[in-house]
Amino acid sequence: MQLFFAENIEGNTFHLDPEESNHLIKVLRKSKGERVSFTDGKGYLYQCVIQDANPKKTKLSVESRHFTPEEDFYIHLAICPTKNADRMEWMVEKITEIGIHEISLIQSEHSERSMIKLDRLEKKIIAACKQSVKTRIPKLNPVMPMEKLVSDHRYDAYERFIAYVDKENDRHLFEKATVNKAYLVLIGPEGDFSPKELELAFKYHFHPCSLGQSRLRTETAGLAAVHTLQLLNAISRD
């Protein structure tokens, strides 16, 4: 299935913006009467028919709609942006394909980058959802201080973890997490979290966890954490 995205699909007909219209009609050479699949990123899958193949304002009609319920678990990854923006974009793309629900960008004492182009990340997320046929667009939050996130009481009911490298921190995330929960996992920069930041996280009931014996790059650690939690919940369903 080839999946397309339209943010607001209301009623039985809708129009695409010029960029999406051009891609559908000029690039992919779709024509009037062809059936295409759309999502609004909110859990709905729409089967549609092209009514007017206008490369600037394509009109489509909705034949059917299917709603995908939310999963029994929720993965929120909070991570320090990498110095190389391409590496962060790669990670966001891959964790979207694997399955992420929310991404927060955090700034720590050893952060290598404080600014990042959210619009580019959002485009990567949408493209990855279309590629992997996902009907829910993950939430992306702008850069915020680590202290602001860890002290936010909205996450009190989450299972909260902080991943870092230490010979005494040897229990893997897979062992410590419980199935069908909401999770918040902190991933630090290449220089890792400072001792002061670790103490801050422990103060707000974040549990230390390992992602394996290797020292991972920031983006690799983010990918490993998301895959671990997806795997944990997938195994529980078998």
Radius of gyration using CA atoms only = 20 Å
Distance between the termini: 26 Å
What is the typical, i.e. mean, pLDDT?
93
| Overall outline | elongated
Count structural domains: 2
Q: Which fold name fills CATH's third level, the topology of the largest domain? A: Alpha/beta knot
CATH architecture of the largest domain: 3-Layer(aba) Sandwich
CATH superfamily of the largest domain: SPOUT methyltransferase, trefoil knot domain
Q: What is the name of the CATH class of the largest domain?
A: Alpha Beta
Q: How many beta strands in the DSSP annotation?
A: 11
* Order of the strands making up the biggest sheet: 8-7-6-10-9-11
Please identify the structural class as seen in this structure: alpha/beta
For the sheet with most strands, the description reads: 6 strands, parallel
Query: What's the total helix number?
Result: 7
% residues in beta strands: 25-35%
Order of helices and strands: EEHEEEEHEHEHEHEHEH
Helix content: 25-40%
